[in-house]
């Protein structure tokens, strides 16, 4: 894929980058070099390669998917100005 000067100007406009006419040919070469590198990456055979989350094999840490109150409700409301049991008491804001 090759990018022309009009496309470079459009990319600069969309990215909100001020580009002078003298810079357009240089940017065109840079963008074309980037796109050719990406095309080279698509030629690599990755069939049979598992997706990785890291370069070292590791398993994700998992926890039990259970709904709890955390067991510390009293500690949470202890610093509240007002509370009723384990609930925050707030002033009425809607009449």
Walkthrough of the structure:
The structure is a single chain. The chain has a domain at 5-41. Strands 1-2 form a two-stranded antiparallel ribbon. By secondary structure, the protein is mainly α. The longest helix has 18 residues, at 24-41. The protein is elongated. The protein has helices at 5-14, 24-41, 73-77; strands spanning 83-84, 87-88. Helices cover 35% and strands 4% of the residues. The chain starts with a helix and ends in a 7-residue tail after the last strand. A hairpin with a 2-residue loop joins strand 1 (83-84) and strand 2. The model has no long low-confidence stretch (mean pLDDT 89).
Strand order of the largest sheet: 1-2
Give helix and strand order, one letter per element, not per position.
Answer: HHHEE
**Mind summarizing the main beta sheet?**
2 strands, antiparallel
The mean pLDDT is 89
EC number: 6.3.5.-
Organism: Phreatobacter stygius
Protein name: Aspartyl/glutamyl-tRNA(Asn/Gln) amidotransferase subunit C
GO biological process, one term: regulation of translational fidelity
Topology diagram in text:
Blueprint lengths: L4 H10 L9 H18 L31 H5 L5 E2 L2 E2 L7
Antiparallel strand pairs: 1-2
Descriptive tags:
single chain, 95 residues, mainly alpha, two-stranded antiparallel sheet, 3 helices, 35% helix, 4% strand, elongated
Précis, in short:
This protein has helices spanning 5-14, 24-41, 73-77; strands spanning 83-84, 87-88.
């Amino acid at each position: 894929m090759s990018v022309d000067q009009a496309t470079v100007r459009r990319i600069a406009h969309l990215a909100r980058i001020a580009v002078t006419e003298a810079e357009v040919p240089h940017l065109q070469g840079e963008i074309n070099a980037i796109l050719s590198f990406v095309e080279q990456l698509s030629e690599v055979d990755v069939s049979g390669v598992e997706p990785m989350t890291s370069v070292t094999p590791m398993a994700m840490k998992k926890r039990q998917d259970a709904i709890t109150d955390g067991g510390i409700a009293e500690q949470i409301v202890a610093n509240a100005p007002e509370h009723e049991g384990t609930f925050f008491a707030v002033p009425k804001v809607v009449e």
